[in-house]
Structures are given as C-alpha cells and as structure tokens.
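Review box. Two proteins, two foldings.
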Amino acid sequence: MSRLFLLIAGLFGASGVGLAAAAAHSDGPFLGSASQMLLVHAPVLLALGLFGAFSGPRGRALAIGGLVVLAGVVLFSGDLALRNFAGRSLFSMAAPTGGTLMMGGWIILAISSLLPQGAARSH
C-alpha cells in the first residue's frame, strides 16, 4: 500500500504542475481547480506512503481513507481536465462525486486518530 501511495503522490504532483502550466497558458476555466486538487492531495498520499503503518484498526482506516481520497481526486480532477480538453464529462456528477469522496476520505483519516494503533512491529 505504501508503494501505491508513493507512486500516485508522484503522479498527482507531476499532473498538478502540468495542469497548472496548462491553465496559465489557456483560458480553460477548469484546469486551475483540477491542478489545485492534485497538488493539495499529493502530499497527503506522500505522507501516507512514507509514514503509514497499515496494520491494525488505525492502519486499515488510514489505508481506506487514502484510497477514498485517491479515488475522489481522480474523479474530480479527471472530470475537470476532460471537460477542458475534450469538452465532455467523465459521467454525470463525476466532479461532485469526486469532491464528496475527498471529503469522506478526509473524515476517515480523521476518524483513524480515534482507533487503536495495533501491535508494534519488531524489525
């Protein structure tokens, strides 16, 4: 799970910078928002990838929260980018669904703080 989060964090960061550059050179109304969501959430996944311990109740909640955030960003930013570049949406309500998933993922991450960490691992 850590490697997945690290991979996606890097892809989100690169895509966010690319979309920010595209937004600066076009009049597309959606690219700035898509870029912002990618760049804001890349560090979350980076932190989960670097520091997340995904065993025990807290770890499982962190993994689930991270995956929900990931899915939300893909839907939200992907829909906005597609609208800009192709003139169509992923599907009806894709961006709002993505936004709702991002909020839900953050709530799951917050709830994880209330859960037991699980057994300590020996190295």
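Next protein.
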Amino acid sequence: MHVPTGLRRVVAVVCATALASSPALLAPTTGAASGAATTTTAARAAMPHLVATLTKKTIRVKGPRSLRAGRVHLEVKGPGIVEFVTFKKGYDVDDFTADVNKFGAKNNMKALRRAITRSTIVGGLAGGGSGTIVFPRPGAYTPFSIGERGLVTGRTLVVRGPARSSSAPRTDGVVLAKGGPAWGGASGLPAEGRFLFKNKRSSGMPHFVVLQQVASGTTTDQVLDFLQSEEQGPPPSWLLPGELATGTLSPGRSMTVDYELPPGQYVVMCFFPDPDMGGMPHAMMGMLRMITLT
C-alpha cells in the first residue's frame, strides 16, 4: 500500500511546487459521491448545475449560459481538484498565476500573501465528486487546479445579479475550520452522506479538508509525529485506505460535499501553507482532529 498523497507527499513538496499544499496535489479520492449521496433531482432542478472537467491543459465548465450569483450544484470530472476563485479589483488571473508560481518555485511569502489577500476561493471538489458551492455576489469566477505540473485554469465565468435565494441542501453534520488553526463541528458522521464544510470568517486563513482513514485508537500525536518525520520506510500500520479531499475555502465561505467512505476512524487535516509560519502546512501546526464515520 502506498502512502496516501494527503500525508507525506504534500509535506514533501509543500515548498517545491506552486501552492503545493493545495488539495489539487492529492490523487483522486475514494470519497467520490455516490448516487445515494448526491443532491436529489428535485434539489438540482432548483439551482444551476455545473460540470467541470479537468484535463492536462485546461478546465472545461458546462452549465447554464446565464448564471446568477448564489448556490450552484457542482460536479467535477478528471484527475484532480477543481476550485473557483474571484479577485479583488486590480488583481487578475495572471497575477494570481504569477504569485502562485513564485511561491512554489522560491517559497516566496510575499507572493503567497498577495494570492491569499487579493483573492477569494469559494470551494471546489475532487474528480468524481459532487456538492454545492456559492458564488456570493455578481462578478468573475475562474476555475483553477494546481498539480505537479503547475496551475491550470479554465475560461472565467461571469456571474450576474441579483443573487438567487437558495438554501443549502440537507447535511449530516458540519466540518468547521476555526482560528488557531483548529477544527470544530461534528465528532461523528455517517459513512455515506453529505457534510457542510465551513471556514469561519474569524479563522483569518484559507482552509481545505482532508479526511484520512486511520486505525481505531490512533492519536493526533501519532499523525503529527509521522507528518514531521523524514523517514522513507514503509507507511505506519495505522494508515488505512479511505481518503477524501475538498477544495479550498477563504474565510467566511462554505460549501457542501457529497461523499461515501469506509466506516471507521478518520483524521481531519488541512495542508494549506501559512505565510505567518514560513509556508508551513496547517496540519503540521497541529490542525488535526479525529472523527468517526459509522
């Protein structure tokens, strides 16, 4: 069994690849949405439906020709994670790409700070996954993905107003990113269902979710010791196959994630790089929490 990319691989390349701790570096997960877990046909009919397909060179997004601000149902296809970002005035996708590449190539903290403070990332999903994201206001939203070959973008979507009124679909629990950095929310979820991922505005930093299955009784200290180690031997005995990753959320944003995973114990992690800590991934700063899927 190989070491899941959500652990050692992210740590190994976090400062060597453009925004290397982005979830787009994770392999397609075993947590893809199932038919039972996806948004119902009736719910999908009540909101726009987007399909984002990631290729080696671009991202193709299919959906309504006229798109209003508000919640949309998102389905992602392809070997990676597709996320959506909007920019502040005077900053655009070329600036974002340049800053991402500067951080990746030289661990440039100024570039990382610019990318964080001058953009708003509204979420995304891994290939094979589905859920809902929110375009909070009229404007331009660009799909992007970050992998080993760097940043890939697609054609920018123009979202118009006024915003539609659409509530989130029913969820089975909340995964909450807080300041610290730390996790809150549900201590348990069903093994198949839908969770709300919310990044509190007060967290002050972008976050994303990695759910990694571990053996029953594994502690966060064990996981942290493994992440901080430089051992190249076999994976630890407590590491199990189930895994899932979401796209990134800027502070104050939320999304829903459909999933189906093996029952058991999971560690919740975030590997987003923190510019206040020299680009250290949040998980290595202790942003770890154990939950149970039944």
